[in-house]
Design a protein that fits this description.
heterodimer; A: 336 residues; alpha/beta; Rossmann fold; 2 domains; 5-stranded mixed beta sheet; 14 strands; globular; B: 286 residues; 10 helices
């Protein structure tokens, strides 16, 4: 059952569940951050509407800088603003930023410790018809390997808004990852969000016999948290208990919560819309390898690029659908 | 910007020569690093830190200071020596350049050493960082000015020209860039590796105010900076023609000295030449 304490969307499993692009939360959060602090500025590389920077640009035109199609320039201008007391947010598609401007981010933002927030949009393959050139599937790996960098991948538009607001208050470089397509709104305004904390979104319903002892821990981030929750619900009907952890905070990683949970349920399924190589799952696997080795199954891209197609078709073809998660749970149970 | 009065100019010329000597000693001690660029830019660093910049070595983070962004970080030995002369840290520390546990990294790192405005080394990214600082100054209604020192070789980088476009578009009149036009880069002469001429026409086409000076004439530089301050509608680029390896005959204009330090014998020869030059400057001024 859904964790009542977190006040998640009660209509989450309804057919008409509210759907909203995660990137909308960036736009909302950016305006709120701008209202809260006059030092917040925003930069965009010819994608103001698509990255939802537009609302900020309209509200605070003097604090918005259009740099044109020049992601390297965007990152480095932001680096200069960030060491001068400003809190710059830069937005583009993640394949271009942090894709094309990786070195600029590394040297002038991360190593230079400039207070810049990097919003990577169109993450994952659910970008859809634009194809693999526009589907960022290595960005978590790139960014979490970088010293000084914080990395967050929110699960829905509301969490995205909170993450964006939180990023403005964190001192130092932050990477925020957003998906393009409409996806179910999982949380509510009342759901708490703390950077560095993983949250239990689902645990087995009490008093259901064998189910009172869940057997598999599913750790997910991004919009695929929804698929993980649907899989958990269906598995419960099949008498398989799971706990679903929303792990939006990839770096810093909530090591304590993850280790506590794995010690209770030492069979893990990692779910993310990213390459399995180097992603959120790898971060958790590194932690477990050191402190509490446990069998893990990974849901994500298997060292392959995406392609054009509808988001649903792509998620299914590349093995990140509900049935894939369920199968992974069954596989890991056999190994545990 | 006031012109440099005659007595002061003589002092600065001597100081620039001492900075060159110290650069040679520091490079010898480090055992690796770049020689030609730092020697070629010694006059420009001297003029900035001892005449042009509003700064306070005792308060390196003074919010109203002018900023000097070194884009081509590899010439940092000249910057480090100049900062030491200006009083940001003790001379002794120059001996730690490029060594373990040093604040003087092989390429400058803002977080470790007072007086550095940014971290640089990878080329072509300094001008846009200076732009960010210039935008911040405008947002905060500060009068401080931002200067960016660039190399000619790094004009091969796309990032640099993205910055040139942006500054022109945004009329950043509080931004002045200086390009060290010494005509060399690692693989040879700039005009063979990737021709830049006409550099002046290129900047003009990007809506910059362009000035050309003798990069070893500090009075010229002060005048150019003064003119840049008076230009209201555009950023200014000062194309400073310099001699790489300036002051050391066997290094001058030889691109092979771009990226290597002198050995003991070469340093001895170089220091002899520089000290002779220093005595000449002094006697001419007496």
């Amino acid at each position: 059952m859904l964790n009542h304490e977190l006040k998640l969307n009660p209509k989450l499993f309804d057919e008409d569940v509210e759907q909203k692009p995660v990137r909308d939360g960036y736009g909302d959060g950016l305006v709120l951050a701008g209202e809260a602090d006059k030092n917040v500025v925003a930069l965009c590389a010819d994608l103001a509407e698509s990255t939802r920077t537009e609302a900020f640009a309209k509200k605070f035109p003097e604090r918005f800088f259009e740099v044109g199609v020049a992601e390297q320039n965007m990152a480095t201008i932001a680096a200069g603003l960030g060491v001068s007391g400003k809190i710059p947010f830069i937005a583009s598609y993640a394949t271009f930023s942090p894709g094309r401007n990786y070195e600029q981010i590394r040297t002038t933002i991360a190593y230079n410790d400039s207070n810049v927030k990097i919003a990577g949009h169109h993450a994952g393959i659910s970008v859809g018809p634009d194809g693999a050139t526009h589907q960022a599937t290595e960005d978590i790996a790139i960014m979490r390997a970088m010293p000084n960098m914080n990395v967050f991948a929110p699960c829905d538009a509301i969490e995205a808004k909170k993450v964006t607001l939180a990023a403005a208050k964190i001192w130092g470089p932050v990477y925020l990852r957003f998906t393009r397509e409409k996806s179910p709104v999982i949380t509510t305004e009342a759901t708490s969000f703390t950077p560095g904390k993983a949250q239990i979104f689902w645990s087995p319903s009490p008093g259901s016999g064998r189910l009172s002892k869940p057997l598999v821990l599913i750790i997910a981030c991004g919009a695929l948290v929804y698929n993980a929750l649907v899989a958990a619900k269906e598995l419960e009907k099949e008498k398989i208990g799971t706990v679903v952890l929303n792990n939006a905070s990839i770096k810093p990683l909530d090591e304590k919560t993850i280790l506590d949970m794995v010690k209770k349920y030492p069979a893990v399924v990692m779910v993310e819309e990213h390459q399995i190589n180097g992603g959120m799952g790898s971060a958790v696997a590194e932690l477990l390898a050191k402190h509490f080795p446990a069998p893990i199954e990974f849901i994500g891209l298997k060292d392959t690029f995406g392609e054009s197609g509808s988001p649903d078709e792509l998620i299914e073809k590349y093995g990140m659908g509900v049935k894939d998660i369920k199968n992974a749970v069954i596989r890991v149970l056999k190994r545990s | 910007m006031k012109p440099i009065h005659e007595g002061r100019l003589k002092y600065l010329e001597e100081l620039a020569n001492r900075i060159r000597e110290k650069v040679v000693e520091t490079l010898l001690e480090a055992g690796s690093g770049h020689s030609a660029g730092p020697l070629g830019m010694a006059d420009i660093f001297t003029a900035f830190y001892f005449h042009i910049l509003k700064h306070d070595p005792k308060k390196p983070l003074w919010p109203d200071r002018d900023r000097l962004v070194l884009s081509n970080g590899h010439i940092c030995p000249a910057l480090y020596v100049t900062l030491a002369y200006a009083g940001y840290f003790h001379f002794e520390e120059l001996k730690t350049l490029r060594k373990i546990n040093s604040r003087l990294q092989g390429h400058p790192h803002r977080k470790t050493l007072p007086g550095l405005e940014t971290t640089s080394g990878p080329l072509g990214s300094g001008l846009s960082q200076a732009i960010g600082m210039a935008l911040a100054a405008k947002l905060d209604n500060k009068k401080s000015r931002v200067y960016c020192l660039t190399s000619d070789g790094e004009h091969d980088e796309g990032n640099h020209w993205e910055a040139v476009l942006f500054a022109g578009k945004n009329h950043l009149n509080n931004l002045t860039a200086v390009v060290d036009r010494n005509n060399i880069q690692i693989d040879g002469l700039t005009e063979n590796v990737m021709p830049l001429e006409s550099l002046k026409a290129k900047y003009e086409a990007f809506n910059w105010h362009v000035l050309e000076i003798d990069g070893h004439n500090m009075q010229d530089l002060a005048d150019a900076v003064s003119e840049a301050e008076a230009i209201y509608e555009k950023p200014t680029i000062i194309i400073a023609h310099t001699i790489p390896g300036k002051g050391v005959s066997f290094m001058e204009r030889d691109y092979k000295w771009h990226g290597k330090p002198p050995n003991k014998e070469e340093a001895k020869k170089a220091l002899h030449e520089l000290r002779t030059l220093g005595r000449r400057i002094k006697s001419e001024h007496e």
